[in-house]
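Quick start: read one record
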Amino acid sequence: MFKKILSVLAAAALCASMAACGASGTSSAASEPVSGSSVAQADSTAETATEEASSGALRVAGLKGPTTMGLVNLMAGEQGENYEFTMYGAADEIVPLLVKGELDAAAVPANLAATLYQKTSGAVEVACINTLGVLYVVELGNNIQSVEDLKGATILSTGKGTTPEYVLRYVLAQNGIDPDRDVAIEYLSEATEVAARLTAPSTDSQTLVAMLPQPFVTSVVAQSEGGIRVALDMNEEWQKVAGSKLVTGVLMVRKDAVEADPEAFAGFLTGYEASVKTANTDLAGTAALCETYGIVAKAALAEKALPACNIVFETGDEMKADLQNYFQVLYDADPASVGGQLPGDDFYYAG
């Protein structure tokens, strides 16, 4: 048995745990992709990255938020002793370690995996989708019943130039709403700012709504004591117009780590799948572990948020189809968001 390393961050303020779920555009774990800048910083490191396959325990990185909420039961279980788990506060911290071969796998935003695939000349692949859409439109009132009702609204959001912007603009456009003419989209740096604005709306005639990620949505709705409600699930709205799921997070892995011991990696995925199943069925137990490991500040919040975090385990053809559709939309909006070009077939782990 290998020694299990659990680098547990102490439970911090609620807003800190929300940031990893997409509250800021620079350190998202779940709802926002990492821009090319973080990968560019590690690009020179890629040239000197070790060519040796990883030996010993699989070294897995996670971020605070929904992606690691799906891993937590594996981390805490007996099988977890076979792996080294480390958590980080931002995806930017993971990039150079993965490029240098100091990490074998990481639960990261989907577009970061695509970008690293390009930057490392195909040295990484995606093994599974672990999180679908965690974005929701919320409002103070009861005016928004459909996407069409957003016409004329002021929409507050985070993530300018990242997944929230791409998702919002795409869904609006596909519903006949011009994002530049028919609505006023205002991007703020933190989800806490969005929530504050939503609860103290201006007196102008426009409807004020916000697009926020989970589990921040659950917290805001609870604290508003019924004043703020979830109006639209952007995952559902995406599926209506795109024909496939809105992908948020994936498990990315170095190919040399898989090739070093294919059976061991397959065993890891089996344990991961079981962990995700438990996360979706044993909400109380999973929530308690999320608090223990500092993934979410309070178990009560995690338990309420889990059903809305869309934690999944998708592999094979389903994974490939959903990712290809998602990447195509991102590419059409901004090619740099997926590394300049769409990933090849070798990007998708076949088992």
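The chain has a mean pLDDT of 82.
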